[in-house]
Amino acid sequence: PELVLEPTPKIDEIGPTQITMETFLLNGSPILGDPNAKVTLVEFGDYQCHFCNVFFHTTEDSILKNYVDTGKVKMIFKDYNIIGPDSVNASHGTHCANDQGKFWEYHDILYSNWTGENNGWASPENLLIFAEDVGLDIDEWSQCMIDGVHSKTILVSNNDAKKLELTGTPAFFVIGPDGKTTRIFGAQPYDVFENIFEIELAK
Questions:
Q1: Phi and psi, residue 167, nearest 5°
Q2: How far is Cα 195 from Cα 200, in angstroms, rounded to an integer?
Q3: Which of 56, 84, 117, 146 has the fewest other C-beta atoms within 10 Å?
């Protein structure tokens, strides 16, 4: 299902629920930024998703520059594979890259080569080329892919997204220093994120 962007940002506060911090923080990427940053941004995304790609190219750089690189916000990416089989393979590619310390490099090269949904750009052949381009040990990475080493991690992440009742990607959660969680749907503009970050950082 394609995510329909709301005309106005849809931001909900999550009330008392069975969701725990592990739902947001585990079975995803390594932390990008300072692990001790006051605020956490969690993205649930699909590497083939159009709006995830829009976020990557229009908003993420500003968040990284102004909040992650400055130590104010840390970022975690979690898989929610809703487009097709290539999405799952792409997720595997990032986790196998993570075994060699290059999760975020592989994450970035995927979105930098995005050309659409289910049109073959994330084929196994292309995923291998991306692995070469980011300088991975190809034998080790390929074996990791063949063995499906990270299947459980990806499955649990997808289950976490379902627990959170996510219906599309991207979906973001901003977690403040007091544990308050704010949900943001879709590829919202930078100032939506900035406003929430500033509220949480002021605590």
A1: -110, -5
A2: 9
A3: 146
Q: Could you give the maximum distance between any two Cα atoms of the chain, in Å?
A: 48
What are the tokens at 114? 């995005």
Domain 11-201 CATH class label:
alpha beta
Residue boundaries of the structural domains of the chain: 11-201
Note whether 170 and 45 are within 8 A (CB). Answer: yes
Interval 88-113: pLDDT, tens:
999 999 999 999 999 999 999 999 99
**Stated length of the chain:** 203
Tokens of 83: 């487009």
- Angle, CA of 49, 187 and 46, to the nearest 5°: 25
- How do the residues of the chain divide into helix, strand and coil, expressed in percent and rounded to 5? 45, 15, 40
Q: Are 106 and 137 in contact, with CB atoms under 8 Å apart?
A: no
Is 115 strand, coil or helix?
Answer: coil
The token duo for 141 is: 């990475």
141 alpha carbon, distance to own chain's centre = 20
Please tell me the number of Cα atoms within 13 Å of 68 on its side-chain side. Answer: 18
